[in-house]
Amino acid sequence: MKILDWYILKRYLFTFFIMLLLFIPIGITVHLAEKIGKILENEVPFSEVMLYFLDFTIYFAHLLFPLFLFLSVIWFTSKLANNTEVIAFLSSGVSFSRFLRPYLIGAFIVSILALALGLYLAPNASKGFNDFNYKYLKSNKSPVDNRNVYRQINDNDYIYVSSFDAKQQSGQNFTLEHFENNKMTYKIKANSIRFVEKDSTYKLLSYLKRTIGEDGDILEYTRRKDTVFPFDLEDLTPVEYIAETLPYGELNRFIEKEEKRGSSNISRYKLVQYRKWSLPVSVFILTIIAVAVSSIKRRGGMGVNLAFGICIAMVFVFFDKIFGVLAAQSDFPPLVAVWFPNVLFGILAAYLLYNAKR
Predict the structure, then answer these.
(1) What is the rounded average pLDDT of the residues 248-270?
(2) Contacts by 16-21 with C-beta closer than 8 Å and gap 24+?
(3) Position with higher pLDDT, 252 vs 134
């Protein structure tokens, strides 16, 4: 590596990590100021609070990873441009593509960190962060969709409950329909169903089973019945943030299982899955945009570059969030929602890079 490469690469990584170290404490302070009332009201143990803010640090860093990177590259590249260092580099016969090489090496290093963070560290942090939120800060809100739950639990069985209580592991107005060769063979109904953890059975009240036969149906009724089913009530209504808490391998298996069950939240789960790979790609795109924008010495100095960079970053975040919500709440394809901002800003990066070379 040449001296120029080491110089830019060190500035790239150093500024990025300094940006993280500066903004994360600010984020923690603002978040603590907002939540301190609830924490004191619920008398949360100090050890749990410390673990929560450790999880929040990782969660916050992963969430704003591209934004921190983008601003840090604009910051130090603008300083190079204002000190006429960029002009000196290019005047020495170095092409703009060659000047860009250490930035791309730095982007590769950061993208590997982003990938490792998204695949392994962020899921654990997200679980701790969300569990704490719903336990202490949102105690009056359920993290599960517990109304009118309808799920396919295997190739033959479908179940329904009108309401579900995750803490009590019980549901109301339970129905199970069993099919063979696309024909219903029996149907079970009960006013309530509750999982008895002690002996791993289900207790059904006002149990009614209708077995469908060629010569007539057979009815079986009892006020209470203890039985076994091939499912877990907790699995029927996973918490809304479950996809964020799973490592990549488990997430893939979970999505495959939920697709077979006909989950209504499958788009939300796939958004998390696709973003694990789109984030590292966005690191390269935003790096190229930042260099192309800030490598030119402007009359307004660093302030103009930072203002322009912040506007681009906000637009990127806006597109990412808007399309994410659109995919989660409608039939909009999650793959398109996740990759559209990268494609759009990739085109912008190519345009800005072409003009910067000129």
Answers:
(1) 81
(2) 16/68, 16/69, 16/72, 16/73, 16/106, 16/110, 18/72, 19/68, 19/69, 19/71, 19/72, 19/75, 20/61, 20/68
(3) 252
